Amino acid sequence: MNLGKIKNITKKFFDQTGFETDVEIETPKEEEDSINLPIKIKAEEPKPLIGKNGQNLKKIRHLLKLLIRKNFDLQKRFYINLDINNYRKNKIKYLREKAVETANDVSLSRESIKLSPMPADERRIIHIELADREDVKTESSGREPKRRVVIKPS
Q: Are residues 68 and 122 in the same domain?
């Protein structure tokens, strides 16, 4: 996988949007059946690129994935971890902290707590963060787009 070519594709994509960006491509994490490519973007005006609750960021990630797949013959599953001005990094940190804080409350009160509705990738972060705890358990409930994590005492 040619990282220089990927950087050029990504830079050209953002140049065409009219936003000034710096692009950093990190070393892909390759597993037996998949490739995970971290791409970090720094932008002077990140809000329109990120969008409300990261919706634009997700759409941009999808478009970049399509562009990159078009330019490479990839035999493995291919994922992009796109982050703009550390939005995703900070969101993941917040979700992990929220999971632990809520789990501690559930453990003390012995009463279930329903978190706000969130997309599947964010619910997954909560489930993974609390998976090793023996005092609480998690489950998703509801239907999209109002699906949420419920943290319950064990």
A: no
Cα-based torsion angle of the residue sequence 24, 96, 76, 145 in order, rounded to the nearest 10 degrees: -110
Average pLDDT over residues 34-62: 95
Alpha-helix residue ranges (DSSP H) falling in the chain: 3-17, 47-50, 55-71, 87-109, 120-130
121 shares a domain with 47: no
Q: What are all long-range contacts of 120-124, with beta carbons under 8 Å and residues at least 24 apart? A: 120/147, 122/91, 122/95, 123/147, 123/148, 123/149
Contact by Cβ (8 Å): 80, 39: yes
Instruction: Let me know whether 7 and 75 are in one domain.
Output: yes
Regarding whether 78 and 29 lie in a shared domain, the answer is: yes
Same domain, 24 and 80: yes
Query: Do residues 96 and 62 touch, judged by C-beta distance below 8 A?
Result: no
| CB of 39 closer than 8 Å to CB of 83 | yes
- Confidence band for 11, pLDDT divided at 50, 70 and 90: very high
- How many independent structural domains does the chain possess? 2
